[in-house]
Fold this protein.
Amino acid sequence: MRVLIVLTYYRPHTSGLTIYAERLARGLAARGHRVTVLTSRFDRSLPIEAVENGVRVVRAPVLFRVSKGVIMPTFGWLATRLVQENDVVSLHLPQFDAAGVAARCRLFGKPAVLTYHSDLKLPPGAFNRLVNQVVHLMNRLAGLLAHRVVAYTEDFASHSPFLRLFSRKIAVIPPPVEVPEVGPQSIAAFSRQHRLDGHRPVIGMAARLAAEKGVEVLLNALPRVLEVYPQARVLFAGQYRGVMGEEAYARRLAPLLKQHAEQWEFLGVLDPVQMAAFYPNLDCLVVPSLNSTETFGLVQVEAMLCGTPSIASDLPGVRQPVLQTGMGEVVPIGDSAALAEA
């Protein structure tokens, strides 16, 4: 079968959505399907077309950016050609261009499966509010035109205003989770590299430095944590410099990060093998997300598979890994005191 996967950002951009799409693409290719990804060439150093891990990746050139989105003049032409070439189309929202691709699927008689990963909530501002409304409209049109709609959990599907519109089309399919096997030597090497002696509690967070991730909730919880565990440390795995659209947020957090510089270590983006060594070195992982741009938190399940519990916000979908496994705690959204006590 020939499968076309369409999303705005693909690897090497790092987010839960791009990781999901990459795992889906590689998994289908490994099963013998011919997989093509249509995405943006958000970084000009990336090739316009390449085969990566058995997956054909076609990147539409970006003319300019609109907030966190991109304008790609050739995207429509590429979508028309690739929809005709493939047997089924997998659309990943939020995505401004999804409605146009779904319309092409109807025109050419190709089934379209839409996976709704999260809501879109851009930083405050009149222009961003307009962009939000436009993308919401295009998402709804895509939902109307798609043949099936996929949600990660029943919890999120029943709480999402978008997904409730398409309840008759919904299939609940948990996201793909992969954790490479690493031996005790790799875990110990990670511990030595980051000076973890086994006596100091280690709190982990795996995310981008972005407003919706609730990094300040953890920062504001630290004084209380340090009262009880003065030697506690935080390891933050993920992009923390130059995060698209988050410059103001980074500036706002800078004083708190400076205050806790001795306890807080930024690790940068880790590859899957490094992440598999990261999780076992933690006493807990925290997912203090603030809104419905987070709907599950793949990192929670990855950590749990390595034996590490999670403390998660009481958000639809995000709370499910803890509730279903009992490995951790669920705390009120944005509640630093509750996070510290957990």
Observations:
- The radius of gyration is 20 Å.
